[in-house]
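Input structure tokens:
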């Protein structure tokens, strides 16, 4: 099993934050339609924060170098 590069780790962190932002946006939309609309605003604000976090992780990943290719190890003895 290959270890993830730092770039791949930041990309995964960005996807995780996007997923959280999406879930919070759906929750905020649900609350905005209900009787307790006052709950929608803080949930939406938290979703926006996670969207900002996702953009930050993606920006970091964009400037990191690509990982070096793995060297073949078949037939190599140490």
């Amino acid at each position: 099993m290959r270890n993830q590069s730092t770039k791949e780790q930041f990309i995964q962190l960005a996807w995780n934050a996007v997923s959280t932002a999406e879930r919070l946006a759906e929750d905020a939309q649900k609350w905005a339609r209900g009787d307790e609309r006052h709950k929608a605003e803080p949930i939406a604000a938290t979703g926006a924060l996670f969207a900002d976090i996702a953009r930050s992780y993606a920006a970091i990943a964009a400037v990191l170098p690509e990982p070096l290719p793995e060297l073949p190890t078949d037939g190599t003895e140490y």
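DSSP finds two helices and no strands in the chain. Helices lie at 6-33, 40-63.
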